[in-house]
Amino acid sequence: MSSKNITEPLQIIYSDGEFKVIKGVVDLGYMGIYKSENISINFDEDFLEDVFEDDDSEYYQEEYAPLKPYLRQDMTNDEIAKGLTDFYNMRIADINKHQTELNQTFLAYLLDNICGCGFPIWDECKRYIINDKMPDCDEEDMEEAIYNDEACDMINNLFDNVYEKAHTGEPIEATPAEDIFRKYFPMFDLEKFLSDIEAEYLSLNNANVVFQCSGKDDGLEIACGAYAEITINNAFYDWHNH
User: Fold this and answer.
1) What percent of the chain has pLDDT over 70?
2) What are the DSSP E strand ranges found in 118-207?
3) Mean pLDDT along residues 173-190
4) pLDDT band at residue 175, thresholds of 50, 70 and 90?
5) Which DSSP category does 43 fall into?
6) Residue 26, helix vs strand vs coil
7) How many C-alpha atoms does 233 have within 13 Å on its Cβ side?
């Protein structure tokens, strides 16, 4: 987990028949730090037709329309690379501006996952368990003690709030996910877990920025191939985990 954002500007070129990211670092906060060798771009010359299709659909407006101010139909490939560089540096800057909300979104999705299935963090993630903060109960009562109604209600409310507001572009004003994590799972060392998140790959896909990350060791039981597309509204789309 980085305490200071270390994003460095991207540089995209056209070489050997494809667009490539050759420089840059993207710091996604809790979701990891991605270096140029792990960043790809999904764009070729034919995509210009999609960008300038001038479709009124919601999909077009979110996926392609944001690129139009940075591109022209008669551009050379080198000019396209420059336009894409400018666009994606703008996108990353906007993501960094909203990093706090995105961190909350990431934790809200993880909390929803582990609470939704009553995941036995006390057995599967011993690396992060603070033993003297575990509930004083028998093993067979542990799930009910940890995933009690109050905890699950708070997590459900957090997730619903984050999901709804992120997808409409509204500011997220929910109780911070970290506070819920610490209150209801005091036995779990959240800081240690977040510091173990490893970036896997980042893909620049139309207007979306796609990430995949995982924990390490026991952390894989909670975040394993955690994947989402960060939309133009800085919401998560198509979340996968495990």
Assistant:
1) 96
2) 198-205
3) 87
4) low
5) -
6) strand
7) 19
Q: Confidence band (pLDDT; 50, 70, 90) for 172?
A: low
Note if the pTM is more than 0.90: yes
46 to each of 18, 42, 77, 104, how far by Cα in Å? 11, 11, 11, 37
Residues with Cβ within 8 Å of 199's Cβ and at least 6 positions away in sequence, in order, are 28, 31, 32, 33, 34, 35, 38, 211, 213
Beta carbons within 8 Å of 78's beta carbon, 6+ residues apart = 13, 14
Residue with token string 């809790």: 30
d(CA 88, CA 67): 9
* Maximal C-alpha separation, the chain: 70
Helix ranges restricted to H, 3-136:
47-51, 58-63, 77-97, 99-116, 121-124
Q: Are 209 and 92 in contact (CB under 8 A)?
A: yes
Helix axes 99-116, 177-184, angle to 10 degrees: 40
Cα separations in angstroms, 114 against 41, 93, 120, 230: 32, 31, 8, 22
Residue 173 — very low, low, confident or very high, per pLDDT cuts 50/70/90? low
- Bridge partners of 202? 39, 211
Number of CB atoms found within 10 A of residue 59's CB: 10
Residue 3 has pLDDT above 60, yes or no: no
Question: Which residues have CB under 8 Å from 41's CB, separation 6+?
Answer: 12, 19, 20, 21, 84, 88, 203, 204
Mapping DSSP to helix (H, G, I), strand (E, B) and coil, where does residue 209 land? strand
Q: What is the pLDDT of residues 56-66, one digit of tens each?
A: 898 999 899 99
